[in-house]
Amino acid sequence: MSIAIDTETTLHDELILDGDAADALFLEARTANSWSDEEVSEQALQAVYELTKMGPTAMNIQPLRITWVRSAEARERLVAHMNEGNKAKTLGAPMVAVLSYTNEWHQLLPTTAPHMAGTAPMFEANEETRNHMALTNAHLQAGYFIVAARAAGLAAGPMTGFDAAGLDAEFNAGTPNSSFLVVNLGKPNGVVDRERLHRLAFELATETL
């Protein structure tokens, strides 16, 4: 795919990625609702996380927590909390990831950001700030997660249509974690449900000051 970004150059001319990589990660990748029957290996999941964790977060707090839902029993428990339109595709996906954020990320500052470890008591006393930072940065990590899944040869189907309170009672009970996204994962099967929806033009979505 050759996308013009001005009258004299193309997108690929400006990238350090080769064309195949840019296509796999962005240009040709699609949100998936169905997959091939191929199983998603534990090694693939580890690779996805190893890439995801390397993306930057504020103060390196890394609030994202992932629950991999593989077994049939766990899948049924998960699907019970999905909105009706998301039930069948979640039940049929080779792998599902429940993405949550922890509001106790400050307790790991001596490991994740030793130079900021002295601020842990301040964050301990301010739950609202912790929650805001956790949710904001976990969403950032969710974006890395989807691109990492594509880099591992997987298609991703992210969803927010679920009962978060019910899901948390089912999977996050007794933890400081709160779910915010469910992502179906699997090897792509080549099925395209519809044409790609419109993306906003550079001139509409950006400005230079």
TrEMBL record:
Any one GO molecular function term: oxidoreductase activity
One Pfam family matching this protein: Nitroreductase
Keyword annotations: Oxidoreductase
Annotated ranges, domain Nitroreductase: 36-186
EC number: 1.1.1.-
Entry coiled-coil feature ranges: none
Protein name according to UniProt: 3-hydroxypropanoate dehydrogenase
Gene source species: Arthrobacter stackebrandtii
Taxonomic lineage of the native organism: Bacteria, Bacillati, Actinomycetota, Actinomycetes, Micrococcales
